[in-house]
Amino acid sequence: MASILKVDELRGIVSAGDITITSEGGSATQSLQQGLAKQWADTNTAGTTLNDSLNVSSLTDNGAGDQTITMTNAMNNATYSVNMSNQIEQAAHVFLRATATPKTTTVFRTGAYFSGYIDVAMATSTVGDLA
Amino acid sequence: MASELRVDTLKDSSGNNSVGMTYVAEGSAKVWSNLNGTGTIAARDSFSITSYTDNGTGDYTHTFTNAMGNANYCWLLTVDFEAGTAKNGNIGGDSSSQTTTAIRLHSYGLSNSVENDFDTINVSLLGDLA
Does a structural domain hold residue B43? Predict the structure, then answer.
């Protein structure tokens, strides 16, 4: 019989922020918290609205191909890892604007470029440590 | 002593927001990294990375702490944009050298179509651990 655990919050005993899960193959254990996405978002093509998201308080359209994501719950530092994809069938490539606009614990900025900055539907996800 | 909980499904106390442990385990990133890929490369932050190798300009190998169950995992890669340096870039994984413990990446500047080092190389992997 399948078992179901009903609970609102999971915490580690030794360390509140560290719960270990056993790997799919059974030969390793790894931190549950570290592997969870702390943010994700899906925007419309104009980059003006969020179609769906997790831990995002706002999306700012800075202009063509230029968006700022602000997170609801802050990350613990600004060294988190963000990945993104262009969701339209076009050769535009997408990237962080981390050098020109350094990330903060709550904000990162993205760009999309195809012979000039261009609006695209953008998918982003963030992994790292929450504060 | 560490405690162990064996359960198939997690729900909140109201019985909503159900998620099976399969999704918890398989949906979690098994590796992630934020690498400074310029000069002497160095991790800013990472999870389950044991080492990095600088194979040359725009050519990096990431080696994992815990091996993946197979070499068919999914990788997500992103670089930053360095204004004014012709490094408006792109990055790809080298599938021919993808193993259960390492992935080799190549980052390109689109303006000059050659491999370039980038200040930020972001990686995350999804798939089954060994």
Answer: yes
Q: Can you give the pLDDT of all 131 residues of chain A as single tens digits?
A: 789 989 898 888 888 888 999 999 999 999 999 999 999 999 998 999 999 999 999 999 999 999 999 999 999 999 999 999 887 656 678 888 877 788 999 999 998 888 788 898 899 999 999 99
Domain locations along chain A? 37-127
Q: Are A45 and A92 in contact (CB under 8 A)?
A: no
Q: Which residues of A touch B15 (CB under 8 A)?
A: 6
From the number of C-beta atoms within 10 Å of its C-beta (0-12, 13-18, 19+), residue A41 rates as buried
Q: How far apart are CA A54 and CA A68, in angstroms?
A: 15
Is residue B6 a part of any domain in this protein? no
Report strand pairing: B9-11 vs A4-6: parallel
Q: Which of A38, A49, A35 is nearest to A76 (CA)?
A: A38
Residues of B with Cβ-Cβ distance to A77 under 8 angstroms: 45
Report the C-alpha gap between B128 and B130 in whole angstroms.
Answer: 6
| Any domain includes B91 | yes
Exposure string over B60-72, b if 16+ CB within 10 A, otherwise e = bbbebebbbbeee
Give the structural domain span for B116.
19-126
- Find the residue in A nearest to B119 (Cα): A99
B93 occurs within a structural domain = yes
CB–CB of B30/B126 below 8 Å? yes
**What's the token pair of residue B11?**
């729900």
Report the distance separating Cα B11 and Cα B20, nearest Å. Answer: 9
Asked if A27 and B25 come within 8 Å (Cβ–Cβ), the reply is no
**Number of domains comprising chain B:** 1
Integer Cα distance of B76 and A110 in angstroms = 15
